[in-house]
Design a protein that fits this description.
The protein is α+β, with helices and mostly antiparallel strands. Helix content is 34%, strand content 27%. The chain contains 14 helices and 23 strands. It has a seven-stranded mixed beta sheet, sandwiched between helices. The chain has a five-stranded mixed beta sheet with strand order 16-15-17-18-19, with helices on both faces. The longest helix is centred in the C-terminal third of the chain and has 27 residues, at 374-400. The two termini are 30 Å apart.
Length: 471
Amino acid sequence: MNTLPDIKNDFAQWYQEVVYKAELADQSPVRGCIVIRPYGCALWEIIRDYVDKRLKETGHHNAMFPLFIPESFLKKEAEHVQGFAPELAVVTHAGGKELEEPYVVRPTSETIIHYMFARWLKSWRDLPIKINQWANVVRWEMRPRPFLRTTEFFWQEGHTAHETMQEADEEARMILNEYVKLAHDYLAIPVIAGRKTDKEKFPGADYTLTFEAVMQDGKALQMGTSHMISQSFARAFNMVFQDRNGQQAHPFLTSWAVTTRLIGAVVMTHGDQKGLVLPPKVAPFQIIIIPIYRAGHDQQELRAAVAKIKESLAAFRVFVDDGDHTTPGAKFYHWELKGAPLRLEIGPRDLAQGQVILADRIGSEKRQVALGSVAEVVGQTLDVIQKTMFERAQERLRSHWHKAEKLSDFGPRLDEHNGIYQTGWCGNPACEQELKKFKATTRCLIDEKTSAVCFYCTNASKGDVLVAKAY
């Protein structure tokens, strides 16, 4: 059995190996890209299905747009193209000929979707337009890391157009709240919601809302964002409509997304020295049943009992590992590595006593459960695991969260030990730039003011900001 690197002393290498050994992904021959394996894909599909359901319940409709975007589209909004230029993959030849105009492999779809919005939108009666797309995108990544930063990744990207700024603002904030609920209730990851600084916001947006998490090593991870695009892209694409007064007006726009990065967040938030630890609500298999066959005992009777147990657990995602090519011990190790929340073991002696042995991924003790009570106990235990995982992650977040006054004091500590620091800021980008000396950035502005002065200069603080090193 292969052991994993020490999670406390070599977290980065632990992460890499657990992703591959737990069969979430595999390396690709294309640099910066990964192959998402069936187990990782199943995890993403559970997240995807939940998000898709919530988006439809809040009035959004799925659509699909081209992978290729005319290069001229990105040049219509100056700040946008400048922000994405270093990451673009550009197609210059196709069909054996040089293209008259190069195509960009989509890094995000604002430009082409807004081009279509301009075609569809005529009157205020056409608003709001609320579109979501499930797609892959390409951003050329110099330092790839599976799920966290890859050249190609998968996501949902929402794009909406509204009659008023207030409606667009409410949309951007509503989506952020949905993302926070996903993180808390499903991924069991406590997050901090706030607003990005102008330096860190999405290129071309009026403002960007974010939800940030802190991983076990004290580094921050941007989990997803919601952008108030306002009218900059509407003007760039001549997106106009006749308003209620018969005048020509530009709509107010939003865009927002979460990606397969969420899988990396789950791995880094909850994993331990044995491997993955998956929240029950998103685990591909919530329960693993392992029959333990003994020589001289009737295997058919045990198989029939296992089938009956599985049938009683129809409300859950269950896998029966009854292969005879590995030992029960090897199976225990395998499913601990893959983070399955619950394991049920049953052998001839257990069957004779009318019980199964239950082991949960976050506990250390096994317990006996009567066959007639399995479904009830499993349901209760999965709820406890989900709740406990969130509480453990909350406590870890609190342990990494510090309040500090001056960068000269907390900068060296942050540089050496990571962590997230709440401090005051005057709002000057020049002060924000000083964080780079400690490999840190502002993560978000928060609605609190605990420091009277800026973390760098002597000017008064306009409000608190969170500072951390980030993935």
